Amino acid sequence: MDLEVKGVAASPTSQTQPFSRRKKPLQQGWTSGSLAIQNSCPPVVPPLDLRSLVDSDDEDDFSYNRIPLSTAHIYFNPPNSSSTLGWITPCQMPYTQHHLNELEQDIIPENLPAPTSKYKLKYQQYKTEMKEGYKQYSQKNAEKTKSNIIHQQSPRNKIDEKCVQGEEARTNDLTTLDRKALLQQGYADNPYTTQQSARKSDAEIVAAEKKKQTVAEQVMTDQLSRAVISDPEQNSTTEKQESAHILPDSKLAPLRFRKRTLHETKIRTHSTLTENVLSHKVQFDGRIISRNGRDACRELIGFFFNHDQSLTIYEYRQFGKNRTNVLPFIQKSTYSHQCGRRKGKQYQLGDFYIGATLTFLSSHHPSLPESIKQNSLLILRITNIDQIALDSLKTASVEHEDDIISLEASDRLVFKAIQDVLKEQLHKRGVRILTGLGKYFQQLEKEGNGLLCKTDFKQALEVFHLEVPEKDFESAWLILTSNGNGNGKVDYGEFKRAIIGEMNEYRKSFVRKAFMKLDFNKTGIVPIIDIRKCYCAKKHPQVISGQSTEEEIKSSFLETLKDACSKSDEVSYGEFEDYYEGLSIGIVDDKDFINILCIPWGISF
User: Fold this and answer.
1) What's the CA gap between 94 and 85, in Å, rounded?
2) Which of 26, 335, 492, 526 has the fewest CB atoms within 10 Å, i.e. the most exposed one?
3) What is the distance between the alpha carbons of residues 389 and 281, in angstroms, rounded to a whole number?
4) What 3-state class would DSSP assign to 452?
5) Taking a C-beta distance cutoff of 8 angstroms, is the pair 73, 5 a contact?
6) Rounded distance, CA 179 to CA 560, Å?
7) Is the torsion defined by CA of 426, 603, 559, 569 positive or negative?
8) 498-548 pLDDT, tens per residue?
9) What does the pLDDT look like over 32-90, one tens digit per residue?
């Protein structure tokens, strides 16, 4: 179907005028200084005057109006065939190729005026900006290429990842997981300044003091009231009144309207406690040593009363933001050691210090949670203590030293010798080895009580290529079995703490703080999705310098953490603690370790 433009019919002869040859007369006119008018305009179509479109600015005045221009008629006809090649005949040239040929010729008009100073200045600014942008782009690409070369895994490393763990441990070279775990130590180079967490830290200190005060008031209230109510002398007055026969008085009100009390609390008894007597106490914070994350994160506050050598422990619970509750966890009484060199001896003032272990029989406390009563022993670790009150009570009381102190010191020396040997072997490999040991022990232990025999521990040391002198191992095993229940088995958590050691309570307090921030539901288990959401790598030195992206640092952390877990989609408190326990081996300064925890998890110190 032929098309018509402005009433002018397209003739068959117009097929020899293709669209790609439109600029040919313009090119001839540009080089010669004048344009030849090849086709005259019909009287119906008025000519187009391009001189009115010239800009009036002086710097853009290139005297285009001196060049006569003419219009060319464009005719459209459908292609002769269905193929697009039918649009271009062999004698025609595509527009893009024709345009490139024009650029190659580098044609400069003869009548162009010289550029003004204003145009030269603009061109120079544009040239400088382009050079600077290209320079920055080149530097960024060079750094990114260098970073990819460093972090890219070679085929050899990919093969090593598929090898068994024992083969990796034979070589002194670090594995890929070791290198990714060591990336977390980079936070130690970027100190978490006090100004960044000053307000948050002050608020937490106030909240902690308020919590301790609340617990102390509840303890004093409970003990003062219970001491009077439970005293058997309270019934003496009631018994005398019952023995005397008193006739009913008609003037008295009926019995149902009289004020009745359970005891006559106005009388003073010989065993009544006073606030002054209860004030001679030592307050301490504690945690439960357990593989159950819910129990390990319980907030316990205890009190040791010096007047009768008794102790009590309370649990502080918080429901939401405003509701709190303080409940007795261990009732006030005198207790004794249940294991170790001091088994059977009553707790004294000297047994309370940071890092001390308190043991109780679960069967003697029916009110304990079911998860705790599954174990025969309840083991508590003192994490913090009122040092001022402890020193004042030690000055007033005199305790004599016994032979047990020297025996305990010799036991610590045996364990210290083994720990020094293993720390050299665990240097920069602590995360992989400690988390691997935890998973390996869980696979060996089938009964659920955490007890393993001597052969199992020796086999584990051989699998992970941890060399311990035979004499030292036998000495340590003798100490552990003598402190245990006498069945020839030892809890594998206690075995790990004895031969490898553990980080101090100051560091562990921050590990618990980070995990409790992640554990929203207080279940002791955190999904990997929540960890990915909460972990922030923006302040990692490699991210700041541009060597790595935030996602690369986060992915490396999650990969090493998943390798430490028995389930790929969740992390328990024990696995979380083992990860940072292994990371803590290669870090000497406590401040560096605190930075590693505070910066990515956004907690204050």
Assistant:
1) 11
2) 26
3) 7
4) strand
5) yes
6) 10
7) positive
8) 999 999 999 999 999 999 999 988 889 999 999 999 999 998 988 998 899
9) 444 444 445 455 566 666 655 554 444 444 444 444 444 444 444 444 444 443 444 44
| Residue 594 DSSP label | H
**Roughly how many angstroms between the first and final C-alpha of the chain, as a whole number?**
83
The token pair that represents 16 in the structure block: 């020899």
Cα dihedral value 144, 150, 154, 159, nearest 10: -130
Neighbouring CB atoms inside 10 A of 58's CB total 10
pLDDT in the model for residue 310 = 94
pLDDT score of 326 more than 80: yes
Cβ-based burial of 136 (10 A; exposed 0-12, middle 13-18, buried ≥19)? exposed
Please name the amino acid found at residue 190: N
* DSSP-derived 3-state class of residue 361: strand
Under DSSP, the state recorded for 546 is T
Amino acid at 600: P
Give the three-class secondary structure for 527: strand
Asked if pLDDT for residue 224 goes beyond 60, the answer is yes
Q: CA 605 to CA 602: how far, in whole Å?
A: 10
Single-letter code of the amino acid located at 561: L
**Contact of 162 with 544, CB cutoff 8 Å:** no
Please tell me whether residue 259 adopts helix, strand or coil conformation. coil
Residue bearing tokens 């090898």: 163
Instruction: Using alpha carbons, list the distances in angstroms from residue 186 to 99, 576, 602.
Output: 56, 19, 16
